[in-house]
Amino acid sequence: xxxxxxxxxxxxxxxxxxxxxxxxxxxxxxxxxxxxxxxxxxxxxxxxxxxxxxxxxxxxxxxxxxxxxxxxxxxxxxxxxxxxxxxxxxxxxxxxxxxxxxxxxxxxxxxxxxxxxxxxxxxxxxxxxxxxxxxxxxxxxxxxxxxxxxxxxxxxxxxxxxxxxxxxxxxxxxxxxxxxxxxxxxxxxxxxxxxxxxxxxxxxxxxxxxxxxxxxxxxxxxxxxxxxxxxxxxxxxxxxxxxxxxxxxxxxxxxxxxxxxxxxxxxxxxxxxxxxxxxxxxxxxxxxxxxxxxxxxxxx
Length: 300
Description:
The chain folds into 2 domains: 4-150 and 191-293, Metallo-beta-lactamase, Chain A, CATH 3.60.15.10; 152-188, no CATH class. The strands form 4 sheets. The protein has a 7-stranded mixed β-sheet. Strands 7-8-9-14-15-16-17 form a 7-stranded mixed β-sheet. It has a two-stranded antiparallel ribbon with strand order 10-13. 43% of the residues are buried. The protein is globular, with a radius of gyration of 21 Å. Helices cover 25% and strands 27% of the residues. It is of the alpha/beta class and 300 residues long. Strand 14, helix 6 (205-211) and strand 15 (216-220) form a beta-alpha-beta unit.
């Protein structure tokens, strides 16, 4: 199993359907689980997908419309019931803190102390490995990005040319030089991997900033392009706009989700057609319980 992958738990927008649950997305990232926008029914979707409460280390809410947060009570209570020991960071817009409190304490249960709350404010915020940017929606909404720091990859032919081998390679990586040979002479820059998560929003600068160079972009495509006026009115993206973002931002793998209930599986080719107007990279039209690996590391 990949250590970096997306597990899709739900793909509907405001109204769930027989085949699409409300939102829910678990990003597995080097032993950390980022659970984004747990909508109604997420706890049960987790059970179907083989995801446990112990897999959740981050609970990230973009905004407080019901399809993005009504699963919070069940997830929190399951974290408590299963006696999760590790910290769980809860990230959400500070302007919706009243709603967070209602969801966090929606019913009687034996509570847990592992949840650390991180209300967000301002246009840009950072919490650990997570960067949040404010989007354009009728209520305050944030998009998220997980970013690995940039590093360097060793070049075997350069190491061999300088006669560096064995333990000296580790010393070079740790100290930056061995026998007068610098790390830069034997390595090349290695970009850090990234995954971005963009839900309810109109097109805005923050969408492109979150998506810039992302290895994996999970993005709403609530409407087809024929409903672009409606999408703009309600603060959503069309599939064509999602494709535009992916193309301009240089995204490597695109995942479309958050579909209006007016569309069924038979409409998936139309979503791909809209995206292909501008984006020729890898595209997944998400379905519940789909698993999407983060692409293998780019070399440049």
